[in-house]
Amino acid sequence: MTDTPFNSRKNPATTFTEWLREQNQDNWDAAINHRFIDELFAGSVATDVLQHYLVQDYQFIDRFVALLGAAIASADRFESRVRLARFTAMITSDENTYFLRAFDELGLPAKHRNTPQLTPQTKAFQDLMTEAAQSQIYPLCLSVLVVAEWLYLSWADRPDAPLPPRFIHAEWITLHNNPAFADFIGWLRSELDRTGAALDADGQARSADMFGRAVKLERDFFDHVYSPLQYS
């Protein structure tokens, strides 16, 4: 990370979200080009690795919806609240349903769906989402939301890659790479561009800190799925 404030950047054409990503390019690139993503597109993720990934990832939904709620409450425009509310409905319907179907496909018992053992990486990301939500500051909420969604759009955007045959792989890709999702991420970034650039230097530093921690946690999460827990 750089200590240079966004408003003192050398390239004034860079948007706030582009500036944030540039500060975390190594972790960003490592996450979106991760071995797990390559195996997901190939449909070759080992079953125990995929179980571990999905079980732990599902534990983010509750905190993520709470973070969306905090963003809705702290947004400065009614139109922003409406757009975020519609996205929340998608998370609690289409994405939640995918997880339930995937768990059925993998034969995972209810205890691992509802109250699994949490890894340190999962807990750390939950804590960051809670921290952002409790700030009740719209651009800080967005700083974590943008990473969680933009980074997923980025890894899913492989236009020349064919989809794997099983829904458990293919649908996780298409949930994060479709025109509606891409349009939402463009809007979400524009919201952080607009509100983040208006923050004072201290506020921008907090935003950059949360954004950077979120990117590092995304990379750590992908790394840690290759040391899976047992879900028998």
TrEMBL record:
| Domain Thiaminase-2/PQQC residues, every copy | 23-226
What the record says about family reads:
Belongs to the TenA family.
Q: What does this protein do?
A: Catalyzes an amino-pyrimidine hydrolysis reaction at the C5' of the pyrimidine moiety of thiamine compounds, a reaction that is part of a thiamine salvage pathway. Thus, catalyzes the conversion of 4-amino-5-aminomethyl-2-methylpyrimidine to 4-amino-5-hydroxymethyl-2-methylpyrimidine (HMP).
Q: List the keywords (alphabetical).
A: Hydrolase, Thiamine biosynthesis
Q: Which domain of life is it from?
A: Bacteria
Instruction: Give the pathway.
Output: Cofactor biosynthesis; thiamine diphosphate biosynthesis
- Species per Swiss-Prot/TrEMBL record: Herminiimonas contaminans
Official protein name in the record: Aminopyrimidine aminohydrolase
Q: Which Gene3D superfamilies does this one have?
A: Heme oxygenase-like
- The protein's Enzyme Commission number: 3.5.99.2
Q: InterPro entries attached here?
A: Haem_Oase-like_multi-hlx, TenA_E, Thiaminase-2/PQQC, Thiamine_Salvage_TenA
Query: Does the keyword section mention Hydrolase?
Result: yes
Catalysed transformations (reactions): 4-amino-5-aminomethyl-2-methylpyrimidine + H2O = 4-amino-5-hydroxymethyl-2-methylpyrimidine + NH4(+); thiamine + H2O = 5-(2-hydroxyethyl)-4-methylthiazole + 4-amino-5-hydroxymethyl-2-methylpyrimidine + H(+)
